[in-house]
Write a structure and sequence with these properties.
Blueprint (H helix, E strand, L loop, with lengths): L1 H6 L12 H41 L2 E5 L2 E2 L4 E17 L5 E6 L6 E2 L4 E6 L1 H39 L8 H40 L2 E3 L4 E6 L6 E2 L14 E16 L11 E6 L2 E17 L5 E9 L10 E8 L6 E4 L3 E4 L2 E7 L5 E5 L1 E5 L3 E6 L7 E3 L12 E2 L4 H13 L1
Parallel strand pairs: 1-22
Antiparallel strand pairs: 1-21, 2-15, 3-10, 3-14, 4-6, 4-9, 5-8, 6-7, 8-10, 10-13, 11-12, 11-14, 12-13, 15-20, 16-17, 17-18, 19-20
Helix pairs in contact: 2-5, 3-4
């Protein structure tokens, strides 16, 4: 207690207060850091926006491919569809009514001239022929009778005519002459009946020969539309018949190809011009053909010229009825430009093409076209050999648009994008 009183009560020790200057510096530093962070974020966002805008502008510049107009093209081809037909093609109809007795060649068979394709049973025709022959026999018998009558009348008339005067009267002689003339007339009528009956027999015998259907020329049977026991009607409109085609025979040693050529390009096709045929079933083969003739008239419905080509067919690869692409080899014209048909633009002012001008900017040029050659088209006016033509241009392409080229170097693309941004 004494000691406590001696030292007195013990006091608590306190920290000295911080200086206001330190606090101000700390707050200022925090503020600077916050401002720096905010500024950095703003600058970063602005940079990203700029990059996005530049990327958008660069992507808005279309990428195009370029072709150069060709002048005086050699080996230029006009491609048109054509129909391949047999050298000769004959539908075989029946000429008599009846039933099919037998057929001897199926479709695909090779046949020779005169071979029998089929035989027809014609009982009605057989009956008509038998009746006609009986009528002919009767007519011949009558002729014999009339001939005997005429011979007797002639002999009597001549005997009475040679009698001495006064033995036979003139009236009796004239009567015998009348009998002779009547017998002669009856004989002529009987002979006419024989001729008519014979003609009927000959006609029916000719029809009898049609019971055997024969091959008209060497070729291939391409159709068989009947079978044994089938009812046969005479066809092809002969005698009012309306029967169907029984067989069809085609001569395929050589083929005819028919092409309808548009009037606009028909002037370039001449006899003797060569062409190549491409068939869907033989995509890796070509067949040679030659223009042999044209119709020399424009069809008023389609405004086309019918052209016939001939092609040899030693291996029978060309088949009747085949569709073919006909590639005509056209002569070159050095004064005409040729561009792909895909380079054309159909605008309200007419046909145009897009060419690359200064600073890779588009210029639209009006063109005057010549012949349409399939994948190529002739340009008569509007282009020069030095023009750089845009192939397959987008529909939105306009005058002054900046473009860059497919496959161009990176630096060129960058410059194009830069110009696009300034544009």
């Amino acid at each position: 207690m004494a000691s406590q009183n001696q030292n007195g009560p013990q006091k608590t020790r306190l920290e000295p207060p911080r200086s206001p200057r330190i606090l101000r510096w700390a707050g200022l530093a925090a503020l600077i850091v916050a401002v720096a962070v905010a500024a950095t974020g703003i600058l970063r966002r602005q940079q990203q926006q700029t990059e996005v805008a530049q990327w958008t502008q660069a992507e808005a510049i279309p990428t195009v491919s370029i072709v150069t107009p060709q002048q005086g093209v050699s080996g230029l081809q006009l491609v048109l569809p054509g129909d391949v037909k047999a050298w000769h093609d004959a539908p075989i109809y029946a000429r008599v009514n009846g039933y099919l007795k037998n057929w001897y060649f199926n479709y695909g068979a090779r046949v020779k001239t005169g071979q029998v394709l089929a035989e027809i049973e014609a009982p009605d025709l057989d009956g008509q022929l038998a009746a006609a022959q009986a009528k002919l026999n009767a007519a011949n018998s009558e002729v014999k009778v009339r001939q005997a009558e005429q011979d007797f009348a002639k002999t009597t008339y001549e005997r009475w005519g040679d009698s001495p005067n006064g033995v036979v009267s003139v009236q009796e002689t004239q009567m015998k002459k009348g009998d002779y003339d009547s017998a002669t007339a009856r004989l002529s009528a009987a002979q006419a009946g024989v001729n008519a009956a014979k003609d009927e027999v000959d006609r029916l015998q000719a029809l009898e020969s049609f019971k055997r259907i024969t091959v008209p020329f060497d070729g291939v049977v391409t159709e068989r539309n009947t079978d044994i026991g089938a009812l046969i009607n005479a066809g092809s409109g002969v005698g009012g018949g309306s029967g169907p085609v029984l067989f069809r025979v085609a001569d395929v040693h050589k083929m005819r190809i028919f092409v309808k050529v548009p009037q606009k390009v028909s002037a370039g096709l001449q006899e003797g011009m060569t062409a190549e045929l491409v068939l869907p079933q033989y995509p890796d083969k070509t067949f040679n053909a030659v223009v042999v003739t044209t119709s020399r008239a424009i069809d008023m419905t389609s405004r086309t010229l019918l052209v016939e080509l001939d092609a040899d067919n030693p291996n029978d690869l060309l088949q009747p009825g085949t569709y073919a692409q006909v590639h005509f080899n056209l002569p070159a014209n050095p004064d005409i430009m040729h561009v792909p048909t895909s380079a054309l633009l159909f605008r309200e002012h007419g046909l145009e093409v897009a060419v690359i001008g200064q600073d890779n900017k588009i210029e639209l040029k009006k063109v005057t076209l010549g012949r349409n050659l399939g994948t190529q088209i002739e340009v008569l006016k509007g282009l020069t050999p030095s023009d750089r033509v845009v192939n397959s241009p987008p529909d939105s392409l306009s005058d002054g648009d900046v473009v860059h080229f497919a496959g161009e170097p990176a630096q060129a693309s960058k410059e194009a994008r830069s110009r696009g941004g300034r544009h």
